[in-house]
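Sequence decides. Our protein:
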Amino acid sequence: MSDKDKYEANPDRYTNTVGYNFCGKSGLQLPQISLGLWHNFGDVDDKNEALKMLKYAFDHGITHFDLANNYGAPYGSAEKNFGKMLKEHFSSYRDELVISSKAGHDMWQGPYGNGGSRKYLMASLDQSLKRMKLDYVDIFYSHRYDPETPVEETMGALSDMVKQGKALYVGISKYPEDKAREAYRILRKNGTPCLIYQGRYSILSRDIEYEVLPLAKEEGVGFIAFSPLAQGLLSDKYLNGIPENSRAAHSYGFLKKEQITSELVERLKKLNEIAAGRGQTLAQMALAWCFHQQQVNSVIVGTSSVKQLQDNLDALKNIDFTDDELWRIGELG
């Protein structure tokens, strides 16, 4: 790479819009908005736009990039592409980045490429480190609770990752409340307390408010929200049908056309009216709304363009809600 092409990060990146919250009772701070690489960083996606998004994110104070072993299409390609971009453009900034990965869902064929076994988790982390060309990840998650594997085995593997220096912190994702409580107890006993819980949270998905968030507060565990825009539903994309380039229009991914019902569209339109009254887009209001819960340390956004990322960051300009706004939004959630 020539000196002319060398990426130099914005020296004022920590004075931008993004604020930082301590993660639970730890000393680690996370940006209010983190960039997720679930979509738009695989081999099927535009790598030039992906690199532009990474640079824009870091230039504006986003220090946390969230991945998993099976992110991208095909599996593993998001980590591979991220690793290449990291080496070529961000290698001198490694100590300013929080990089997370996960394992738990389907990754490769056979009995050892899924679940919560020590065999799978240890092998998967080693593979992730090779794909990203890293010595360690900052956070490694058990991506889901596996009812076929004892929680002791899964948490023991996470603890050993920290002790081996392959992960600085560990977390869990999508665990039911009783299993999360057990996981927190085991990790604390092992001397590697759980840093963070990653869960689905949005205006359209609020289940975690009843058990997961209160338990995290009780245990001093941080919380980071994924799918705060419900995979794009909480945006202006679907107010007038299904756009050709949207996630619901793709044959891959989890958002399906049949989920976009007329009843849902009506609710989205009413939410959009509330957002307009606040001087925000629906997406900006949906992101800002997540922070009405003090337990939420960060939200993960998945964007397909720099403009979309810029719009998401603008949500932080107004994260305060009146009681009336919260009530009206709650009625439509």
Summary: Confidence is low (pLDDT under 50) at residues 247-253. The two ends are 49 Å apart (CA to CA). The beta strands are 20-22, 29-31, 33-36, 64-66, 98-103, 137-142, 167-173, 196-200, 222-226, 296-301.
